[in-house]
Amino acid sequence: MSKIRVGVIFGGASSEYEVSLKSACSILANLDNGKYDVIKIGITRKGQWLRYYGEIERIEDDTWYLEDSCNQILISPNKMDSEIIEIKNDIFIRRKVDIIFPVLHGKNGEDGSIQGIFEVAGIPYVGCNVVSSSICMDKDYAHKIVDKEGFRVPKNLVINSEVDTEKISEFLMNMDFPIYVKPANEGSSIGITKASNKDESFTGIGEAFKYDNKVVLEENIDGFEVGCAVIGNDDLIVGTVDEIEFSGWLFDYKEKYTLIHSKIHLPARIDRALTEKIKKTAIGIYRALGCTGLARVDMFLDKNNNIIFNEVNTMPGFTTGSRFPNMLLHSGMKYKDMLDKLIELGLERKQ
């Protein structure tokens, strides 16, 4: 039986470049070499696509692109090809690829843009499709759809490129502080401010606009965050529910990856009935947003045990210490089996 040729893409012109490198290293280390012929494709911070032949360690320390063996690579837009094209010494080397595993986080990776490239090229890929990826990335659109489907979302105000100070002031008058100010399209809590008054709210709006042209002001939920790892297209697998215990001021990018003031409880410290309710809600949100392949559904649990939607990550962190794989590991699914399943689901959806 011939091996499945998998193109693993890492890096990317994204603020979450470093996270992608870490996730990709774990995936590359765990893909079964007996099943897969792996092609490593790196995207630099500036957006250059390169075929990488070196060791995983050079991806981890971000020196991979300095390898002399790196060559420019293209995706053939011809649907009949399903090929990547490597340019070496002005010679075009064409290689068939069975599926792409885009281990990319944030903009240009989770927002539907790169998924669109694969759709045009007719190449199967791991993860959510163009529409669900772009919707899940946009906190405004995701909340509107989830709310329409009957799930509770935080009170919020969306600001586009023109700032209406009167409208913002009116919203703030009816809110209890603190509130969160977020770029609508970013991940890993980048550009988020937790504001304790009106002045800090407007400062946060200015900060968020550095990352996106749409900003969301959102109520603070008095409670804690829980998450569900979901895998599947039609038949879904849901991992163990986890819980974030946080004692600091803002669960920002640094805190997410250092856990200085935080602790992840796996399983969450809740009873079985509430756990099942959270899983059911996660499945409902996953389906409402059209997710396929995989996603991590994040929710808040308030002091009255109400479940409130937070966000969906369509390509969550994938290191062996990340929340998504750990939730599935705890439920009895091995890391290698996760990768096999995700590749199987990507190929299945194409068929």
Automatic annotation (TrEMBL):
<dbReference type="InterPro" id="IPR016185">
    <property type="entry name" value="PreATP-grasp_dom_sf"/>
</dbReference>
<dbReference type="GO" id="GO:0008360">
    <property type="term" value="P:regulation of cell shape"/>
</dbReference>
<feature type="active site">
    <location>
        <position position="188"/>
    </location>
</feature>
<comment type="pathway">
    <text>Cell wall biogenesis; peptidoglycan biosynthesis.</text>
</comment>
<keyword id="KW-0963">Cytoplasm</keyword>
<keyword id="KW-0436">Ligase</keyword>
<dbReference type="GO" id="GO:0071555">
    <property type="term" value="P:cell wall organization"/>
</dbReference>
<protein>
    <recommendedName>
        <fullName>D-alanine--D-alanine ligase</fullName>
        <ecNumber>6.3.2.4</ecNumber>
    </recommendedName>
</protein>
<keyword id="KW-0067">ATP-binding</keyword>
<dbReference type="GO" id="GO:0005524">
    <property type="term" value="F:ATP binding"/>
</dbReference>
<dbReference type="InterPro" id="IPR011095">
    <property type="entry name" value="Dala_Dala_lig_C"/>
</dbReference>
<dbReference type="InterPro" id="IPR013815">
    <property type="entry name" value="ATP_grasp_subdomain_1"/>
</dbReference>
<dbReference type="GO" id="GO:0008716">
    <property type="term" value="F:D-alanine-D-alanine ligase activity"/>
</dbReference>
<dbReference type="GO" id="GO:0046872">
    <property type="term" value="F:metal ion binding"/>
</dbReference>
<feature type="binding site">
    <location>
        <position position="311"/>
    </location>
    <ligand>
        <name>Mg(2+) 2</name>
    </ligand>
</feature>
<keyword id="KW-0464">Manganese</keyword>
<dbReference type="Pfam" id="PF07478">
    <property type="entry name" value="Dala_Dala_lig_C"/>
</dbReference>
<feature type="binding site">
    <location>
        <position position="313"/>
    </location>
    <ligand>
        <name>Mg(2+) 2</name>
    </ligand>
</feature>
<dbReference type="InterPro" id="IPR011761">
    <property type="entry name" value="ATP-grasp"/>
</dbReference>
<keyword id="KW-0479">Metal-binding</keyword>
<comment type="function">
    <text>Cell wall formation.</text>
</comment>
<keyword id="KW-0133">Cell shape</keyword>
<keyword id="KW-0961">Cell wall biogenesis/degradation</keyword>
<feature type="active site">
    <location>
        <position position="16"/>
    </location>
</feature>
<feature type="domain" description="ATP-grasp">
    <location>
        <begin position="143"/>
        <end position="344"/>
    </location>
</feature>
<dbReference type="GO" id="GO:0009252">
    <property type="term" value="P:peptidoglycan biosynthetic process"/>
</dbReference>
<feature type="binding site">
    <location>
        <position position="311"/>
    </location>
    <ligand>
        <name>Mg(2+) 1</name>
    </ligand>
</feature>
<dbReference type="Pfam" id="PF01820">
    <property type="entry name" value="Dala_Dala_lig_N"/>
</dbReference>
<comment type="similarity">
    <text>Belongs to the D-alanine--D-alanine ligase family.</text>
</comment>
<dbReference type="InterPro" id="IPR000291">
    <property type="entry name" value="D-Ala_lig_Van_CS"/>
</dbReference>
<dbReference type="InterPro" id="IPR011127">
    <property type="entry name" value="Dala_Dala_lig_N"/>
</dbReference>
<feature type="active site">
    <location>
        <position position="322"/>
    </location>
</feature>
<dbReference type="InterPro" id="IPR005905">
    <property type="entry name" value="D_ala_D_ala"/>
</dbReference>
<feature type="binding site">
    <location>
        <position position="298"/>
    </location>
    <ligand>
        <name>Mg(2+) 1</name>
    </ligand>
</feature>
<dbReference type="GO" id="GO:0005829">
    <property type="term" value="C:cytosol"/>
</dbReference>
<keyword id="KW-0460">Magnesium</keyword>
<keyword id="KW-0573">Peptidoglycan synthesis</keyword>
<keyword id="KW-0547">Nucleotide-binding</keyword>
